[in-house]
Amino acid sequence: MVENARVPEPNTALSPVKLSHVVLGTNNLEGMRDWYRSVLGAELMFENDRIIFLTFDDEHHRIALIQRPGLKEAVSDTVGVDHFAFTYPTLGDLVSAYESLKAEGIMPHLSVNHGTTTSMYFHDPDGNRVELQVDNFDTVDQLNDWFAKGDFTRNQLGTVLDMDEFAAKFHAGVPEAELLYPPPL
Q: Could you give the CA distance from residue 5 to residue 3 in angstroms, rounded to a whole number?
C-alpha cells in the first residue's frame, strides 16, 4: 500500500499515449449536445438523429453522445464512473470558464482546491459529473514535494472554494501561486 501520494517514475510498461474520447448514452441528445458545447467550448463534428461527435481540440471527437432505444434513466449512488475531468492551461482560463458558464446559468455544484488541482464539478443534463480543473503545480517535482508533506494523505478532498470569492481575488491581482497553493491543514 502507498502511504503517501506521489507521481510515479516512468516505467517500461506499454501504455496508450492518451485518452481519446468518452461516449455517453443519453435520452436527451440535443440537451446534452448543447450543454457540452457550452461547457467545453466544443465544436460539432458530426450529428444525426442518434449520434453526435463533439471536440474541443484536434481530435475528431472527444465526446460522443449516443441515443439508443430502450435506454433507462441513470440510477444515482451506483457503481460506475464517478466523473471525468478536463484541464485548462491557466488559472485565468479556469476563472473565465467559471464566469462564462455562470452567465449561462451553468453553476458548479462543488469547487475545491484538492492540492493537486483547483477544480469545479458540474452535473450535465443526465447527471454525469464533469470536472473542469487547472493543475496547481508547474512541475512534477513541486507536486511530489507537496505530496511528501502528507497533506493529501490526511485530506484527499482538499478545501472547498467559493468561486465568486476566488474569481474576485484573481481579478484583484492576488498572485496565482497564492491562489493555487493548497492551504495548510
A: 7
What are the φ/ψ torsions at residue 25 (nearest 5 degrees)?
-80, 140
Gap between the Cα atoms of 56 and 54, Å rounded: 7
- Residue 154 has which C-alpha cell? 490526511
Q: Grid coordinates in use for 102?
A: 455562470
Q: How far apart are CA 38 and CA 99, in angstroms?
A: 12
CA distances from 153 to 3, 39, 185 (A): 7, 31, 11
173 within 8 A of 164, measured Cβ to Cβ:
no
Judge whether 20-70 and 83-185 match in fold. Answer: yes
The CATH class, in words, for 20-70 is alpha beta
Question: Could you tell me the residue ranges of all domains in the chain?
Answer: 20-70, 83-185
Residue pLDDT, tens place only, 116-171: 999 999 999 999 999 999 999 999 999 989 888 888 888 888 999 999 999 999 99
The model's pTM is 0.91
The CATH architecture of the domain made up of 83-185 is: Roll (3.10)
Q: Position of cell 455544484?
A: 109
CB atoms within 10 A of CB 81: 9
